[in-house]
Design a protein that fits this description.
There is one protein chain. About 40% of the residues lie in helices and about 30% in strands. It is built from six helices and nine strands, in the order E-H-E-E-E-E-E-H-E-H-H-E-H-E-H. Strands 5-6-4-3-2-7-8-1-9 form a nine-stranded mixed beta sheet, sandwiched between helices. Strand 2 and strand 3 form a beta hairpin. The model has no long low-confidence stretch (mean pLDDT about 90).
Length: about 180
């Protein structure tokens, strides 16, 4: 069975963003979903934003966001997940694209609606590229239980191998999209 999910475990957010940007740049025509970006002021992390591939952004979490939902020191806007990220995934799935989940983490788990639909999409057999933080046991354990998932640890020392694996995975997905059997 060929893998339908390629999951990257990461610790270094800059590496994750670099690979995600590269994949979106090269495979943007065949890829849909969302990206999560850190909001920074110099070395200080201020929060996170969700960007839908194809357009649209929303503030996901911020130290200055007043919300009934919080994670650590950040207020969380669940509509960023439920509307912006989920809509991007649904649109991409309906269009027959490979799905990008950048990233799944504790904030994603705060939205039951987003989490439930994300699991359905991950188990749909559609090609998915997923980023999750190293140490996020709930995601790693779930991916290890799927026999059609490959997990790669994204680190500086295996950058070239990670890029090659992502490109090979998406090249196969693109070929299948262009030549459905």
């Amino acid at each position: 069975m060929k893998p339908s999910v390629l999951a990257f475990s990461f610790k270094d957010c800059a590496l994750k963003e670099r690979l995600s940007e590269r994949l979106c740049s090269v495979y943007g025509r065949w890829l849909g979903g969302f990206r999560t970006r850190e909001l920074r002021d110099g070395a200080a992390r201020l929060g996170f934003e969700v960007e839908a591939l194809g357009g649209g952004r929303a503030l996901l979490a911020s130290k200055t966001l007043v919300s009934p939902v919080a994670f650590n020191k950040y207020g969380v806007d669940l509509a960023a997940l439920d509307v912006t990220a989920l809509r991007a995934l649904e649109t991409a799935a309906a269009a027959g694209r490979a799905l990008l989940f950048d990233e799944l983490g504790p904030l994603a788990l705060l939205s039951p609606g987003f989490s439930a639909r994300a699991v359905e999409l991950l188990f749909s057999g559609r090609p998915c590229v997923v980023f999750f933080r190293r140490g996020a046991r709930q995601f790693e354990e779930a991916f290890l239980k799927k026999d059609d998932t490959v997990i790669i640890e994204l680190a500086a020392e295996n950058w070239a191998e990670a890029v090659a694996a992502a490109q090979a995975f998406l090249d196969k997905a693109v070929a299948a999209m262009e030549n459905p059997e």
